[in-house]
Specification:
By secondary structure, this protein is mainly alpha-helical. The protein is globular and about 65 Å long. Helix 3 runs parallel beside helix 6 and helix 11 packs antiparallel against helix 12. The longest helix has about 30 residues.
């Protein structure tokens, strides 16, 4: 069947009657999804829809990131490394998409944003429960963050669960210990509700893995996948910072933070510091 007059004919086998069939819009519940963008500016500012869609799509991707990281943690706990790495690989692709999304928001100029910023009140990405849960799952835990979600029972429960669960790194190190690697007891028995901090006693173990990748390939590959996760996360943080600087400069954030300076300090946070420290120990 050829294309004539720049019109493609609909094939006879294509389903067009959805009176009692599942449709694309029905499966995705598009009426609900596409009605969730409700600008508050009056008169409605043209660019507020961009701002809402940007943040809503970010939350959808974060939902999937949490889904994949949760599965990866469970699989590592069950010593199923290969499928856990598949979950991590998917997260890495999502991270790239999330980072690239900042380029869309960066088309918003200071003058445009200033015309509807007031309707946000104190709403801020700082209050994203899913983002905090991702940070916690990767090891950047901070129990003080729970206060932000005290008025939202579901969000508070999500953050509390992420706080109390072993991080992805904890689960990986547990797998290494069960595989015969001499992971220090202090590392395995640490309080998982606290932020991961640099453990120098872990570096010699990782150094042996990095000095002979072929012998320790599964562990070595996983270490590098985790480094990819951290690199991607830091790129996301950096693009966030630069987008904020581009749009509001050094104004304070709507949620009460100092804005760009607060975001800049986030670049000093780390997930897997030993996996960077080990690079200094490798000859060459």
């Amino acid at each position: 069947m050829s294309v004539e007059r720049n019109t493609r004919a609909i094939e006879g086998t294509v389903v067009t009657d959805f009176q009692d069939r599942m449709s694309y819009g029905g499966y995705l519940d598009l009426p609900t999804l596409l009605s969730a963008q409700r600008p508050l500016s009056d008169p409605e500012h043209h660019d507020e829809l961009l701002f809402i869609v940007q943040h809503q799509t970010t939350e959808l991707w974060l939902k999937l990131v949490l889904h994949e990281l949760g599965a990866a943690c469970r699989l590592l706990r069950e010593d199923q490394l290969a499928p856990a790495l598949k979950c991590i690989a998917r997260v890495k692709h999502i991270q790239k998409t999330l980072t690239e999304q900042w380029s869309v928001l960066a088309t918003l100029t200071p003058a445009e944003y200033g015309q509807f910023r007031g309707v946000l009140g104190n709403a801020s990405g700082f209050q994203s429960a899913q983002y905090r849960a991702v940070e916690f799952t990767l090891g950047n835990k901070n129990a003080a963050m729970l206060r932000v979600f005290e008025s939202d029972a579901a969000a508070h429960e999500l953050i509390q669960a992420a706080l109390e669960a072993p991080s992805l790194y904890d689960e990986f190190l547990g797998l290494l210990a069960r595989s015969g690697y001499p992971i220090p007891a202090a590392v395995l028995e640490r309080d998982v509700t606290t932020a991961w901090t640099y453990a120098p006693e872990l570096v010699p173990v990782l150094t042996e893995i990095y000095r002979d990748p072929q012998t320790h390939w599964a562990a070595y590959e996983t270490c590098e996948e985790l480094v990819d996760l951290e690199d991607n996360f830091q790129l996301w943080r950096f693009r966030h910072l630069k987008t904020v600087e581009r749009i509001i400069g050094n104004k304070t954030g709507t949620g009460g933070s100092s804005g760009a300076p607060f975001l800049r300090r986030a670049l000093e946070l780390t997930f897997f510091p030993e996996l960077y420290a080990v690079r200094t120990e490798i000859p060459g």
